[in-house]
Design a protein that fits this description.
The protein is mainly α. Helix content is 73%, strand content 0%. The protein has three helices and no strands. Helix 2 (17-39) runs antiparallel to helix 3 (47-69).
């Protein structure tokens, strides 16, 4: 269920606030599923966990920037 990541910051900045919130919740759900698979020993590449975490952080950063800008 590999998504298209890592996402580029330019892609993220091009999204609207509602899209960012949707994307954030999707990635958080994906991260949860990967963590469950990792705990069960079914995850082949643990690097995907780090990439997802960084994408979530990028999205949250851009959301804060847009919130501060108004």
């Amino acid at each position: 269920v590999q998504g298209k990541y890592p996402m580029k910051i330019s892609e993220i900045r091009g999204l609207g606030v509602a899209e960012l919130q949707t994307k954030n919740s999707e990635l958080a759900e994906e991260l949860f599923r990967l963590k469950i698979r990792h705990a069960g020993g079914q995850l082949e590449s643990t690097a995907s966990l780090g990439r997802l975490r960084r994408d979530i952080a990028r999205i949250k950063t851009v959301m804060k920037e847009k919130e501060a800008a108004g």
